[in-house]
């Protein structure tokens, strides 16, 4: 595993564009650190400091930081599809196979890289969230601090699943731009399936249940939006805002299932393809 991971990391770090995209994909999520210290002066009447609103309290901070950080995954998605596009355009995929790397090892090297960067991103977000929370949170009890760290697991699984989807599209289309465009196509297809389910069952809730089994939607649902939750903390009497924002095991299982399928299909494509 380490040999394959080291091989892939060398390729990425020797590529200037990949290094820049990796740097950006890791730095941008830390804009939450900047947001936590922002003070907005409203014409001298009062000053609003986001950190003082309670949104960086434990345990809600795990929910907020992972939700917003997950939107920056598209930068590393470009790296993932570029990994495949460059292999085909530079003919290095054929050279790797000549040098003794099997097709299975080739796919695994990409997957190990995805897992490595997803894990690294998760650790960095965890450390940042922990220290922001320690600074702003009024709760210091250990059981409260670590109560909802399941969002970190959801964040990790979400990244691995999304990048595995990008890997599959990269293998399928062999062109970075086409692979990224197919993400938008898949997004449209999922909404078409939603409307098909709505027409069939005549019920919006059932249609959404069907959609939640689809790749992009299942990844999104791992970490639900935190806006209603923030409102609930400020206006607890608003019972109509209550919703289920927890991370559920079956949601993780669905995404892991898609991840396994994408890796398997990537391997099958490479195995059957004439290089």
TrEMBL record:
<dbReference type="Pfam" id="PF12679">
    <property type="entry name" value="ABC2_membrane_2"/>
</dbReference>
<feature type="transmembrane region" description="Helical">
    <location>
        <begin position="20"/>
        <end position="40"/>
    </location>
</feature>
<keyword id="KW-1133">Transmembrane helix</keyword>
<keyword id="KW-0812">Transmembrane</keyword>
<feature type="transmembrane region" description="Helical">
    <location>
        <begin position="60"/>
        <end position="84"/>
    </location>
</feature>
<feature type="transmembrane region" description="Helical">
    <location>
        <begin position="180"/>
        <end position="198"/>
    </location>
</feature>
<keyword id="KW-0472">Membrane</keyword>
<dbReference type="GO" id="GO:0005886">
    <property type="term" value="C:plasma membrane"/>
</dbReference>
<protein>
    <submittedName>
        <fullName>ABC transporter permease</fullName>
    </submittedName>
</protein>
<feature type="transmembrane region" description="Helical">
    <location>
        <begin position="249"/>
        <end position="270"/>
    </location>
</feature>
<feature type="transmembrane region" description="Helical">
    <location>
        <begin position="152"/>
        <end position="173"/>
    </location>
</feature>
<dbReference type="GO" id="GO:0140359">
    <property type="term" value="F:ABC-type transporter activity"/>
</dbReference>
<feature type="transmembrane region" description="Helical">
    <location>
        <begin position="111"/>
        <end position="132"/>
    </location>
</feature>
């Amino acid at each position: 595993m380490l040999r394959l991971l080291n091989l892939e990391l060398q390729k990425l770090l020797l590529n200037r564009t990949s290094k820049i995209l990796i740097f950006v994909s890791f730095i941008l999520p830390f804009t939450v650190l900047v947001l936590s210290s922002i003070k907005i002066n409203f014409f001298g009447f009062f000053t609003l400091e986001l950190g003082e609103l309670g949104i960086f309290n434990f345990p809600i901070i795990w929910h907020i930081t992972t939700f917003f950080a997950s939107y920056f995954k598209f930068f590393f998605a470009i790296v993932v599809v570029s990994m495949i596009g460059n292999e085909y355009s530079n003919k290095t995929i054929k050279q790797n196979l000549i040098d003794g790397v099997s097709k299975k090892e080739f796919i695994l090297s990409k997957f190990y890289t995805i897992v490595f960067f997803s894990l690294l991103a998760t650790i960095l977000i965890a450390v940042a969230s922990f220290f922001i929370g320690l600074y702003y949170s009024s709760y210091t009890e250990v059981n409260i601090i670590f109560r909802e760290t399941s969002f970190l697991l959801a964040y990790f699984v979400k990244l691995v699943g999304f990048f595995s989807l990008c890997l599959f599209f990269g293998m399928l289309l062999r062109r970075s731009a086409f692979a990224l465009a197919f993400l938008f196509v898949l997004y449209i297809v999922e909404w078409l399936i939603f409307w098909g389910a709505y027409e069939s069952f005549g019920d919006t809730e059932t249609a959404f249940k069907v959609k939640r089994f689809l790749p992009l939607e299942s990844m999104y649902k791992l970490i639900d939006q935190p806006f209603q939750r923030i409102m609930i903390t400020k206006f607890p009497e608003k019972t109509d805002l209550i919703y289920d924002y927890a991370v559920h095991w079956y949601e993780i299982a669905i995404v892991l299932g898609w991840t396994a399928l994408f890796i398997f299909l990537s391997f099958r494509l490479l195995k059957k393809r004439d290089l």
